[in-house]
Amino acid sequence: MTERSVIVVGGGVAGIAAALRLSERGARVTLIETRTKLGGRATSFEDSRSGRWIDNCQHVAMGCCTNYLDLCDRLGVSDQLTWTDTTWWVEEGGRTSTIRPGVLPAPAHFARAFASASFLTLGEKRAIAGAMHAALRTDRESQTDETFAQWLAAHNQPAGAVAKFWEPVVVSACNLDCGRVSAASALHVFQEGFLSHKSASRIAVSKVPLLRLYDKAETVIASAGGTILLRTSVSRVGEGSVTLADGTELHADRVICAIPLDRAARFVDGEIRQRDDRLRAAAAHLTHSPIIGVHLAFDRAVMETPHAVLVGRETQWLFRKDGAGTRIHAVISAADAWVSLPEDEIVDRVMRDIRACYPRAERASISEARAVKEKLATFGATTEFERVRPATTGDSELILAGDFVQTGWPATMEGAARSGYMAAAAALGMETDAMLVPPLRPRVVARMIGKRAFRPQMRTPRL
Ligand SMILES: Cc1cc2nc3c(=O)[nH]c(=O)nc-3n(C[C@H](O)[C@H](O)[C@H](O)COP(=O)(O)OP(=O)(O)OC[C@H]3O[C@@H](n4cnc5c(N)ncnc54)[C@H](O)[C@@H]3O)c2cc1C
């Protein structure tokens, strides 16, 4: 137990994770959040048109998200997640391929499902199998200088395999297309999320609005002795102090800055920024990638499966939001081409994709539609950014947390939770990985093939 006092600025998943682990260890924690609720970008709001609580966008976790799942456990909300080990890939006309792990051990657990999938030709399947084998043997940390498109080209991937398989997986997981995302980030997804373990690719979605998951954090952190200041903005972040927007100064032994990178670069004390290059270098290469979530209600059932990947369509994923299949949530990641469109055009485009893949939707009429644009949804995991992605600690006392911190993960709730656990450990004077939940242990065959791929390591940012 420690008597250390720690201020955590920002109550998204990263800030919640840090505050919770610190409170559990007896630190005196003050968590400061500008909004009325915790949760940050993983959030819900009351839709003024329908009066329903809806999420800004469907958030998906996977079996490989060991730290995020640990956080859910500590918050007592694991039973609010619903799981499936299957993905349904729907082509134009409605033909559906069911991809679920078979009896073979990882990394061959999807071999049978892929062999019988209808959306890929035999040549495309062979090429994908070859690239998966190569992905298992690739040391992803050495791949920060090339894009995933370059990596795919070097591994002879035909255009059909890229368009129908690699692109939808990468865009959904990294929120950036193969031409822009760093190969290190994309390879991480395939190594940790698909190849290492049968359970890694299981998909979890929340049964309740996201806000209700993170609401629990208030009581859990408070009952562990922490203080939560909501509706409170920080205007300056120092090493042992922060200044609130109303001018109040708060002091602590350590400060964890868990606000998005662009804001951190603005609010962190200028003197710290001069001494500690982490923020300047990363902010200089920061780009954002948008996501659009579209909530739809129909007068009849449209969709039978819990979710679907739409093959070759701009709308990448659909999620069924009720048992009947009349409520659907559509997700468009890396939505640069869509963000400036008005809502009715976005809904039209999504409907074109839905009707193409679900002929029964032709006769359905829409009773509710709401498109939510998140222009700054995530940072862009480009090669330029990955090279300077900031570490938890640096040349000052300032501790950073947030999905942008160097965790190896794309901008995800797992990345945010990991960064929070790493920041908590740093604030307690421990090694940053001391409180991390280890990844799923790769199965023996995957380990034998992928000796280099699964070697744990942290990159040194090239400032
Ligand atoms: C549309 C969308 C879809 C997504 N889908 C997925 C998905 O399917 N799966 C997945 O894993 N991830 C997904 N993500 C990414 C995921 O939501 C984020 O990676 C994660 O929530 C980031 O958490 P964070 O704590 O790092 O940052 P944030 O959530 O941004 O938290 C930062 C907090 O700091 C607060 N803050 C900012 N400035 C101040 C200040 N001056 N003073 C006090 N507080 C301040 C903010 O209000 C915020 O609450 C999605 C994101 C979006 C936007």
Describe this structure in words.
The protein has 463 residues and is an alpha/beta fold. It has 3 domains: 5-47 and 207-286 and 381-427, FAD/NAD(P)-binding domain (3-Layer(bba) Sandwich); 89-201 and 445-449, no CATH class; 288-379, Polyamine Oxidase, Chain A, domain 2 (Alpha-Beta Complex). Helix content is 34%, strand content 20%. It has helices at residues 13-24, 66-75, 111-116, 122-137, 148-154, 159-174, 183-195, 210-223, 261-267, 270-275, 278-284, 343-357, 383-388, 413-427, 444-449; strands at 5-9, 28-32, 44-46, 53-55, 60-62, 81-84, 87-90, 96-99, 203-206, 227-229, 234-237, 241-244, 249-251, 254-257, 288-298, 307-310, 317-320, 327-332, 366-379, 399-400. The strands form 5 sheets. It has a 7-stranded mixed beta sheet. A 5-stranded parallel beta sheet has the order 10-2-1-14-20. The radius of gyration is 22 Å and the shape is globular. The model has no long low-confidence stretch (mean pLDDT 94). Bound molecules: flavin-adenine dinucleotide.
Terminal Cα span: 36 Å
The fold-level CATH name of the largest domain is FAD/NAD(P)-binding domain
Q: What fraction of the residues are assigned to beta strands by DSSP?
A: 15-25%
Q: Please give the largest β-sheet.
A: 7 strands, mixed
